[in-house]
Amino acid sequence: MTGPGTAVRVTPSRRQADEWAVVLAAAGIPHWLRQRLDGWALIVPPDDVVVAAETLAAYDRENALPGAPGGDAAPAQPVTIVGAVVALLLIGFFAITGSRAGHSAWFEHGSADAARMMAGEWWRAVTALTLHADAPHLAGNALAIAGLMTAVCWHLGPGLGAWLLLLAGAGGNALTAAAHGGGHISVGASTAVFAAVGILAALRIVAPAHIGIGARKRWVVVPAALALLAMLGAGPHADVLAHLFGFAGGGGLGLVTALTIRRPPPAPVQWLLVAGAGGVVVGAWRLAF
Q: In this structure, which long-range contacts are made by residues 24-31, counting pairs with CB atoms below 8 Å and at least 24 apart in sequence?
């Protein structure tokens, strides 16, 4: 198809132009490519300019495409290494606290003791996320955090992702304490790990269908996530309730975020949010002692 029209995007790369063309084809928007002096132009009829631009911007947000032009596209995100940094912090903190078998004051003051949490020591919901029973417990959670938190922050940015994981993880610990009512003590970042699984599942479910992700493909992530929860979160020594509440909390927060936030905050805001999340953890430990 050729004729009069408006260029919605121009790129020197034919491959990039073809990719954008596929996106518009999937959305049923008439279009054609034209080679110009400034590169390959993606042309659409004048009446389709707005919907074409919105469709391409949504595709950029979903796939974090480099080199997308400004306008309605998502802003560039800072390099996401938060998951690896948090994993290293957990390892370093374990070197200070030692294992639970050592009966250090850190576990006395920071474990998710259901009875004490119900008595008002709410900060334990946060501090317990940073404690680990032994080296294998730490290793599993650190590896999972490095991968899954990085994935969450890649989609949402380091600050927003960190806050969602902190809220869902602490919330899962609080709900677990309320469900047990007393006589239950737990530690570990696994509640936040399964919160990350829930967030990623939620983000995938609400991915815009008009950028080429069909409803069947989007919803297949639900049984996949539940299967992961069953395999990894229901072992003989696992805190199944905490994992379930973390997963549910992450899924709920992920859905709300995906439906209400059009694009992640810019980099300066993201790093302020990172600092705020770190401040909450430090503040919780100050209250613990």
A: 24/52, 24/55, 24/56, 26/210, 26/211, 26/212, 27/51, 27/52, 27/55, 27/210, 27/211, 27/212, 29/55, 30/1, 31/1
pLDDT at 220: 46
Q: Does domain 82-288 have CATH number 2.70.50.50?
A: no
> Residue 73's closest CA among 262, 207, 269, 200?
262
Strands 32-36 and 6-11: unpaired
Mean pLDDT by 10 residues, the chain (289 residues): 77 87 86 84 89 88 54 47 93 96 95 96 97 93 90 89 97 95 91 92 67 43 56 60 93 92 86 96 97
pTM: 0.69
CATH topology of domain 6-63: Alpha-Beta Plaits (3.30.70)
Q: What are the domain boundaries of the chain?
A: 6-63, 82-288
